[in-house]
TrEMBL record:
Residues 230-389 form the DUF418 domain. Keywords: Membrane, Transmembrane, Transmembrane helix. InterPro entries: Bact_Transport_Assoc, DUF418. It comes from Brevibacillus centrosporus. The chain crosses the membrane at residues 21-39, 59-85, 97-116, 122-137, 149-167, 214-235, 247-266, 278-303, 347-366. Pfam families: DUF418. This is DUF418 domain-containing protein.
């Protein structure tokens, strides 16, 4: 097989920058689940002894972070799917077989991450959804976009229906969750590895797996949009699309302003639909996630075309090139810190935010250092070796100085 690495000339650096930006936001979203038993907390996701600062940070997350970044990552996965398939096809590979091995490798990494590190893994979901994506590779652009809109709008219609359904608080469920939250804090701060695994198998995994179909439904349309736009050349020839991107940017800004403003109005019950405040907030968090996802992507594409802005964004590119490694490292560092520093069940939203800023800043520096010496991140290298069934070179060749004769 011609397992030739992508050259610098072939890389689409905008994608690396956007991927790095998305990883930053995903870390913010995931941090509370690393530090608190989020599955068993009250509807607002805050522990009983939270402060007002935690309330405002949670509100800020709901307005500008929650659901806004996994959507970007999902869109980019679809774009990466097209780029991988088209490049493999151009090099004479059997693309379906190669892609299946690529998905198998991602699924294996995701399952290990899911079982032994953290229940919130998204990699196995991406691998499963990627199987469906393969069905659309030969379809025309209009068909792909039609199916993307179908899956997207059908899910949003389901969301809209929940706004009309009144809901009463389940007191018995709240008491049970409170007990599980206390048990989780005890297990993850004082228990051994066996205690961790037993608690997760009995209490966490069933909840996550029961919603797997919903997670696949959520990311599939974003995969399809990313695939479709990459095939149209959005990232390869961004300048051709700039007028359309600018018009879309203004439209998305107006839509996002309306959706985002609704979140605090619903949370503080200034606006009261039939559904509970929690359900209503979650619906608008999801809707604003879609509009702001597209708004953030358009903003980054426009900024990248400006020379000054590009220089500010480029430090994110190495993080994006090592997205898989950095995603896994965020989990490892957070889980270890929560255990060793006795943060689990104790850390506030503000402390989690500070930890994110520190760790991500280190990742920016470490990613640049690593890629100056190696072709891929460690996890990316393992994934590529598995995909191509061969041991790939990882070190960059040192250029010998040219001697003047």
């Amino acid at each position: 097989m011609k397992a030739i690495p992508v050259s610098e000339a072939e890389r689409i650096h905008q994608l690396d920058v956007i991927r790095g930006f998305a990883l930053f936001g995903i870390f913010f979203v995931n941090m509370p689940t690393f530090l608190q038993p989020a599955l068993f907390l009250p509807e607002d996701g805050l522990p009983a002894d939270h402060s007002m600062l935690d309330v405002w940070i949670r509100l800020f997350f709901n307005m500008f972070v929650q659901t806004k970044f996994y959507t970007i990552f999902s869109f980019l996965f679809g774009a990466g799917f097209y780029l991988f398939m088209s490049r493999a096809e151009a090099k004479g590979h059997r693309v379906s077989m190669l892609y299946m091995r690529r998905l198998s490798g991602l699924f294996l990494i995701g399952v290990i991450h899911f079982l032994f590190l953290w229940y919130g893994d998204i990699l196995h979901t991406y691998a499963l959804t990627g199987l469906i994506l393969l069905l659309y590779y030969r379809k025309r652009d209009m068909q792909v976009q039609g199916w993307a809109w179908f899956w997207l709008l059908s899910l949003q219609l389901l969301y809209a229906m929940t706004l009309l359904l009144p809901s009463e608080p389940d007191v018995h469920r709240a008491i049970a969750d409170q007990r599980l939250a206390q048990k989780a804090i005890h297990v993850y701060t004082s228990g051994n590895w066996g205690d961790w695994m037993q608690f997760r198998l009995v209490n966490e995994f069933p909840l996550v797996l029961a919603n797997e179909w919903f997670a696949i439904w959520s990311v599939l349309p974003l995969f399809l949009f990313g695939f479709s736009f990459a095939r149209l050349g959005l990232f390869q020839q961004t300048r051709l699309f700039l007028p359309a991107i600018k018009r879309l940017w203004w439209l998305l800004l107006m839509i996002s302003c309306v959706l985002v403003v609704m979140i605090p109005l619903l949370q503080f019950e200034v606006v009261r639909p039939p559904a509970s405040a929690f359900v209503s907030v979650q619906v608008f968090v999801g809707w604003s996630g879609l509009s702001l996802c597209a708004f953030y992507i358009c903003s980054l594409l426009l900024l990248y075309e400006n020379e000054r802005a590009r220089k500010l964004l480029l430090p994110l590119a190495p993080v994006g090139r090592m997205a898989l490694t950095n995603y896994l490292l965020q989990t490892i560092v957070s889980v270890v810190a929560a255990r060793w520093l006795q943060l689990y069940g104790e850390a506030s939203m503000a402390m989690g935010l500070l930890l994110c800023l520190i760790v991500f800043s280190l990742q920016v520096a470490a990613s640049k250092w690593w890629l100056n010496r190696f072709r891929y991140g460690p996890a990316e290298w393992l994934w590529r070796c598995f995909t191509y069934a061969t041991l790939m070179p990882i070190r960059k060749k040192r250029e010998l100085p040219v001697k003047n004769s």
